[in-house]
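Quick entry between incubations.
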Amino acid sequence: MLIDSTYPKSFASDNHAGVHPTILEAMTAANHGDAPAYGGDRWTSTFEHHIKETFGPEAEGFAVLNGAGANMVGLAPMLGRYDAIVCADTAHIATHETGAAERLLGTKLLTTPTADGKLRPQDVTARLSTLGSHHEPQPRVVSISQVTELGTCYSPEEIAALADTAHAAGLLLHMDGARLANAAAHLNTSLGAITTEVGVDIFSFGGTKNGALAAEAVIVLSPSLAHAIPFLRRQSLQLASKMRFISAQLSALLTHDLWRHNASHANQMATRLANGVADLPGITIAYPVQSNAVFATLPKAATAALLNRYLFHYWDEAAGTVRWMTAFDTTPDHVDDFLDVIRKSLVIP
Amino acid sequence: MLIDSTYPKSFASDNHAGVHPTILEAMTAANHGDAPAYGGDRWTSTFEHHIKETFGPEAEGFAVLNGAGANMVGLAPMLGRYDAIVCADTAHIATHETGAAERLLGTKLLTTPTADGKLRPQDVTARLSTLGSHHEPQPRVVSISQVTELGTCYSPEEIAALADTAHAAGLLLHMDGARLANAAAHLNTSLGAITTEVGVDIFSFGGTKNGALAAEAVIVLSPSLAHAIPFLRRQSLQLASKMRFISAQLSALLTHDLWRHNASHANQMATRLANGVADLPGITIAYPVQSNAVFATLPKAATAALLNRYLFHYWDEAAGTVRWMTAFDTTPDHVDDFLDVIRKSLVIP
Amino acid sequence: MLIDSTYPKSFASDNHAGVHPTILEAMTAANHGDAPAYGGDRWTSTFEHHIKETFGPEAEGFAVLNGAGANMVGLAPMLGRYDAIVCADTAHIATHETGAAERLLGTKLLTTPTADGKLRPQDVTARLSTLGSHHEPQPRVVSISQVTELGTCYSPEEIAALADTAHAAGLLLHMDGARLANAAAHLNTSLGAITTEVGVDIFSFGGTKNGALAAEAVIVLSPSLAHAIPFLRRQSLQLASKMRFISAQLSALLTHDLWRHNASHANQMATRLANGVADLPGITIAYPVQSNAVFATLPKAATAALLNRYLFHYWDEAAGTVRWMTAFDTTPDHVDDFLDVIRKSLVIP
Amino acid sequence: MLIDSTYPKSFASDNHAGVHPTILEAMTAANHGDAPAYGGDRWTSTFEHHIKETFGPEAEGFAVLNGAGANMVGLAPMLGRYDAIVCADTAHIATHETGAAERLLGTKLLTTPTADGKLRPQDVTARLSTLGSHHEPQPRVVSISQVTELGTCYSPEEIAALADTAHAAGLLLHMDGARLANAAAHLNTSLGAITTEVGVDIFSFGGTKNGALAAEAVIVLSPSLAHAIPFLRRQSLQLASKMRFISAQLSALLTHDLWRHNASHANQMATRLANGVADLPGITIAYPVQSNAVFATLPKAATAALLNRYLFHYWDEAAGTVRWMTAFDTTPDHVDDFLDVIRKSLVIP
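Done. Structure below.
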C-alpha cells in the first residue's frame, strides 16, 4: 500500500495533496512563544474575525479537526432525541462516516435518491408526512452538500428554495461544505452568497481538501444555536488544545482569497481533464463537471490498465464509473500526462 | 482573554507551549508530493514501525488527533453495552471531557476517591461485588492515568499489581498516557517498562503535551482488540485524512528519544520550581512532584497577586491549591523569574 | 378520537382487540400470594420450560413488555459499535419504532426495497461489498420479519437460504416475530420449523397481537449470545418487576397450542375478507394474503365512505392502498358486515 | 430460586406482592370489545382526566410500563447532549438501572453522598461551579426520589427549597416517585402538595409497588416539556399497544383514593415492624421509618438465621444492614409472625 512514490500524481483525492506553502508558513509563524490553549489565543481571535468578515456579523466560527467532525458538531445542536435528517442518499454523512450520525447523534437519516447528488424541495416535502406521528422520527434538518459528492453545485437560488421549504415546515438547513470553496469558485460568487444570503442555518467550511493540513470550521448563522457548539465540540473530540495552529490555517485560507485561488485552480484542472476526455471514444462524463471532480465511465479493461499507472478510485464499479479528483497543486502537465495515459489505456483492448 | 503576549511564560499548562522545532521540521519534510490519505503512506508506516520497536512486536499503534480522542478510541473496544469503568475520581475521562465517556461510550464511570490520584488494587476489588447483578453496570475496565492528574506516577510494580487484579477478575487495564513520557522520564524506565511489560491492555501515548502540534497514539497490546480500532477511530471523528502529518510528529518524538529529552527537561523544571518554593513560608507542596506539575497551596492573597503577573490555574480554589505546569521549552530563567515573583507575592499582604 | 364505542369492529390492527379469556384467567390465577420479582418465580420457570419444549433445548426465552422492546433487546447482543443491520425498507425497526434502532442501538439500517416485504439472499450479498472498509458501518445482522409488514410469509426454505447467506459471510440472522404465530399457522408448520430448524440466531415471539395483554419474548438460539440478555433487558427498560404476570400470558399461549388456535382463526378471517372482495370491481388485493392482513387498493372515494363506518388505516395513501387486519376475536359476522359496507362504499360514487 | 411457596410472606420488596383485587377487576372490565391502540381509548382518557384532577389542570400524564422507564422518559426531555443530573448517590437511577441513564440518555450523574438519601440545596449549589466550562457536563436537572431509597421522605418545604435552588440556577427539578403514594400517606398530604404545589417540573407516579400489575405514569407540570413525551415514550420502548389495560390500573389507583389506602396500610405495617424491633437488643433502626421500609442493623448470625425463614435482602452487607419492605397486602399477622422469628433469630447465637 505504500504507493505514494510510485505514482506520478494522485487523481484519487484532493486530500492526497500536501499543504499549501502559505498555510504551512502561517503555522510556522504561529509557533512563537506561549498561547492559551483551546482557543483563547490571538490567532483564533483573528480567525473569528475573518469569519464575521466573510459570512456576516452574526456568523460565529468554530475551528475543528476534520470533515466528519465538522458535520457532527454542526448537526448536533439542531437535533433532539427523536429527530431525523433529510439528505441525499449519496451524502457523506450517510455513506462514508462509519455511521457516526447514527451512533454519535442518535439520528435517523432519511435518504433520498437523486439524479445528480442534489436534493430538491419536493424531496423534502415528500418526507414531511410523518411529522407529528410518534411512531416515526421527526424530520428536523435538511442536510445538503455543496459541492455534492457527485461534484455538482447548487445554485444560490436552489439553496434558497430548499431553505424556504425547510423553514416553512419548521426544519433547519445544514450544509456540508467540505468543498464549499470549490463551489463558490465554480459559481463565481462570494462564500456568503451561497450560505449567509440564502438561508443556511449551520454549515461547515472545509480547509483540508483545499490546501490546509487539518482544519475545518463549523459556522453558525442562527445565533441561538451557537451557544452549544463549544460544549459539543469538546464532547465530540473535536477541540484542539494548541488551537492556534488550526486557526492559523483557516485564517491563511481566508486571507487574500487563498481559498478561491486554490479552489479555482483545482476546478480548472478538472475542467481541463474533462475537456481532454470529452471526445475520446468509450468515455462518458457521468455528471456535470462543476468543481474539482470528474466522474467518468469507461471500459473496465481501460480502467484496469490505467490503475496500473495512476492512483484513483472506482465510484461505482458495477457501472464502470470512476472518480478523478484534482487539487490545488495539480498542474496542467499532470493533467496532460494523465490524459496521455488515459488515451493509451483506451486502446489497449 | 488575549493574554499570551502580556505574560512572560505560562505555567498554566504544557499545552500552552508551541511545537518543538524538530517536530515542526518533520512535518515540513512530510509536505512533499502526494500521499495516500487516512494512513496508507510511508510516514505512517514508519510510525507503526516505531511503535513495535518501542512497545514490542505485538503492539499496534493508531495515530489520533487529541487526548480525549485517544481515550475514547482506546476504551471503546473494551466496553460492551452495559459495562463500566473503574477509575479515580480525578481521572481526566471523569472530569474534563464533557461527559464524552457517558455520551459517546454509553458507559458508567465507577469513580473512587484517592489520596494521590492513584488507584490501588483494593479500589478495584471493592467495585467487583456487583458483577453478575443485572440491575447494575458490570465493571469491565480499570482505567488509570500515568502520569496522574495530580502529577504523581505509578511504579511499574503498582501497575502490574493493578493489571493482575483486573485480569484475575476478567477486567482489562487501560492507561491514559497523555503524559506517559513524563512518567518514563521520572521513573527512569523505558516506555515499555510501564506498559507492555506490566500488563496494560490498551493505552494512549501523548505527544501534544510533550512538544507535538496535535498528535496522540492509541496503542493496543492485546491483539484481539486491535481489529476494531480503525473503525472506531473513523466513527469517533479521530481519523486525519492527511495522516502523514500526524504520523510524522509521533515518529519525530520516537526518534533519538526526543520524547525523553523533552519530558525530562520539563520534569527538571518542575523540580527546580518545587525546590525553589520548598522553604518559602506559607507555601505547601500538595502532592509529590513526580512529573512536570507542581501542586502548591498558598494564601489566596498571594495567589491573586501572582495571577496578575503569571498565567496558571487554581486546582482547588476552596483549598487554595494551584497547579503549575512546566513544558519542554520552560527554561531555568523562566522558573527563576517565576520564583522571584512568587516570593514577592507572598510578602504583599 | 374516542372512537371505540362508535365502530362495530376494528379492522385497523390486531392490537385493537382485547385479551383472550384464557390468558386473562391465567393472569388472574397468577395473582396468588407473593412471588420473587424480576423473574425468579414459578410462572417464569414454567415459561422458560415451554420455550425449550417449543424451540429446542438450547433455546433460552426472556419475557419482555412490547414488540419494539423485543426487537431492541434481541438485536443488541448481536451488534458492536460500528455494525449495521441489513433489512427490508418496510421493516418495523426501520419505519415504526421512532428511530429506536439508531438511538438505542446506535446502528445503521441498510434498508433494501422489496416487492413483497421479503428480503432475498442477493439483497444481503449486495450489501457485503463494504465489509472491511473503515469508512462504512459493517453489516453484521440480517433482520427479517415473519410475518412481514406486508402480510407475507417466508417459507422455511427461504429463511434457511438467508441464514446460510448470512452465516457464510459472518453475519447473524434476526427475526422480528411479532406475528410469528400467524406465519406458523399459515405455513402449517411448528414454530420451531421456521426458527430453530432453519438457522435463526435470535428472534422475537409476539404475544400481544395474538391475544395477550402485553407479552413478548426474546428467544436466543445461539447460546453464546444469551448471557447478555438479562443485562440488556434491564437497561433497555424491558424488565417487568412483577414478571409472573408476563410469563403467565406467554405460558397460556404456549399451552394447548392456544397460539395456533388464535392465529389460525385470525388468518381465516383475513382470507374470508380477501375472498369476499376478490370479485368486487375497483378493488385489487395488493399482496398475497398469507396471514391476518389484507392489503387492498380501492378508489379513494370508496375508502373515504368506508372510513366513516369502519376503523382502519391507509398503508399508502398516494397509491390508495389500505390495510385491513383481523384478530383472534374477529367473527365471520364481523367480516360479512364489513364486506357489506365495503360493497356499498364502492357504489357510492 | 423458586422460593415463593416456601416463604410465609416476603419482606424483600413491595413488588413481591401481587395485584390489588380492585385493580385486577378494573383490568378485567377493560377487556370489553375493541379499543384504539397506543392511547386513543376511553380508559386512557379517563386516566388523563384523573391526572388533571389530582395534579392540576396543567398536568399531563403519560402511562408507561415500569419505574426505570418512567425515570428515563421523564428525564429525557429535560436533558440536552452535554447536560448532567445532580442526585443522591443512592438514587435508583444511579444504582439500580444498569446504567440506563448513561447509555439511553447519554448523561452524567453528579452523585452526592447524603446522610439519609435526601439531597439538600447546598448539595445542588456545590455542583454549579462548572456551569459555563465547556470541558465539563453542565448540571441541568436535580433529581430526587420521594420516598428516597432509604425510606425517608422530603417535607413539602424541603422540596420547595430544592425547586427554588434549582430554578434560580436555571435547572429543572425531577422526582422519582416510584413510591410517591407512600410519601403522601406518611406526610398526610395530597399528591399535589408534594409535586405541583412545590415546584416539581416532571415526576413519576408509581403504581406497581402500590398494588398495580405494571403501571407507572410520567407527569409533566411544565407544559413546554410535554410535547416531546409521546415520541420519547415510543422510542424508549415504554408505549403499550393495548394501552387501555395500563390506564385502567392507574385510574383504579386514583379512584376513591385507593392509592392512599394501599400506601397507608403498607406504611403502618412498616411502623408496626419497626416498633416491634425497637426494644430488641442487638437491633438498630438505621434510618427514620417514614414509609413502607425498615432498615435495620443486626448481628450477621441473626440475619443468617432469619434468612432461612424469611425472604429479604441485605442493603449493606458489610455494615450488617438489611431492608425490610411491607406491601399493601402485608397483614398485622404477617408482621407479628416475622417479629416472632426475628426475636428467635437474635437469641440463636
